[in-house]
Design brief:
- By secondary structure, this protein is α/β, with parallel strands linked by helices.
- It has one domain.
- 39% of the residues lie in helices and 21% in strands.
- Helix 2 runs parallel beside helix 5.
- It is globular, with a radius of gyration of 20 Å.
- The termini are far apart.
- About 18% of the residues have low confidence.
Length: 198
């Protein structure tokens, strides 16, 4: 009897471990650091921030997209109002935030399945172009919410992931306003793809 209970517990542990290993997000960044933009952003007297969108052809969680947009607008709107109050110099910058991948576990799925719902992850890019459409910078930003942590906090970590990715993106814009110096993607070495796409 004792042997069969131990065998059952061992089988349950193996199945749980296998399930949790499948919970890791497949979303990866291409680097841990973003390069500096071609020019510091203060050279542009007008800076426009467009709404966050999914990349062409990608379908993802619209509620997650809305939360990222809300946080990005909240972070940058006061700065943009200040920067755009300067005299015009004929130079403009357009910031287009594009979510390339998003796995956002939330709501009933997270509450019911907890860690077994899997990890959440997001990869977002800012396409920053001048008035002529030339690329000034194209930084990417990565964040994830681990299955275990997100599961046991009933989705709080999933939502915080969306706040963090917006904070990273707005931080890059603010940090590169005075001096072009780049910034972190938010990824650690373990979250970087071994063969990033060109």
């Amino acid at each position: 009897m004792k042997k069969s209970i131990n065998t059952a517990l061992l089988c349950a542990a193996i199945l749980t471990l296998a399930a949790l290993q499948g919970c890791a997000t497949r979303i990866k960044a291409s680097s841990t650091d973003n390069p500096a933009p071609a020019a510091e952003f203060k050279q542009y007297a007008r800076i426009e921030l467009r709404p966050v969108v999914f990349k062409d052809g990608y379908r993802g969680d619209v509620s997650g997209l809305a939360k990222i947009n809300e946080n990005l607008q909240k972070d940058l709107t006061p700065r943009l109002a200040e920067w755009n109050a300067r005299p015009a110099n004929g130079r403009a910058l357009v910031i287009e935030p594009v979510v390339e991948q998003l796995s956002f576990k939330h709501g009933a799925k997270r509450v019911l399945l907890g860690p077994l719902a899997g990890s959440s992850g997001v990869l977002m890019r800012l396409n920053i172009r001048d008035g002529q459409g030339q690329v000034v910078a194209s930084p990417e930003f990565f964040q994830r919410a681990a299955a275990m942590g997100a599961g046991f906090t009933m989705g709080v970590h999933d939502n915080m992931m969306l706040t963090r990715v917006a904070n990273l993106a707005s931080g890059y814009v603010i940090a590169n306003y005075e001096t072009a110096k780049g910034g972190p993607t938010g990824a650690e070495d373990a979250n970087v793809a071994l063969n990033p796409k060109p």
